[in-house]
Amino acid sequence: MYHRISDLLEEKLEELLPLTATRAEWPKIDAWCTGVRPIIQDRRPSSMGDFSRAASPTWQHLAVTLGPSYDRQTEIEECRRVNDARAEKSKLKLVALLRTVIQLMRHEEGAGPQPSTADQSPKPLNERVFIVHAHDGDMKNEVARVIRCLGLTEVILEEQPNSGRTILQKFKDHSDVGFAVVLLSGDDKGYPIKHNKRRPRPRLRARQNVIFELGYFIGRLQPSCVFALKESAVIEIPSDLLAFGYSTYEPRGTWRNQLVSELRAAGYSVSSDDLP
Hints:
The chain has helices spanning 5-16, 26-43, 48-55, 72-108, 117-120, 137-149, 167-173, 208-220, 255-265, and strands at residues 128-132, 153-155, 179-184, 188-190, 203-205, 226-231, 247-249. By secondary structure, it is of the alpha/beta class.
């Protein structure tokens, strides 16, 4: 018998933590979500949107690709790594959300510390959004337009004055932003040197400076404040970034709504109704 709902949620959190977050094991987490969802819906309905998104990862499926250099086993392994990384990211979101709900519930139940006045005043969000890009000007311009229509300010490094600074100094000076959109356009080609079979066909990938800046903003901000947008033709993603996840770019595509969702999850008051 639980005297407080927060105690019940605390026990549910303890059940979630040891569960393995992989695509194959996700049904166990899905069953856990089924048990927790009614509690969140009843006691904290304002958190249901975030809960539902975290509880329903978007899985990657194998592409139908044929050709002399096609290595299906490699594609299967890459698809598995991507989905396992997305499962881990979703579990982390569930854990963070539940901890926040427990803290709020304890305060409402009189079991937690009274928040200070400073805690009650929301910290203003930095409305500057850095756009990391390479050579695809159309992709960059469309993203910049979407950012402006959402009432935010885009920051594009090449449009800022040099003022005698090195590229790295200029990049650092303009990286004081609240959110970053990283455009993974297919501007380079590459392939692994070591390969069991004959040399594979080079695959499209993003430029190395774009990957560097993606990692920089993941560390400077936090993963939830970085949105990676991958051109559909790009099929090589660094394995360390598979846990991060990404959306696929098409002109006026669904990525725009996904960007709005990520901005809202990061605390921005934006709406899909303002999309161009």
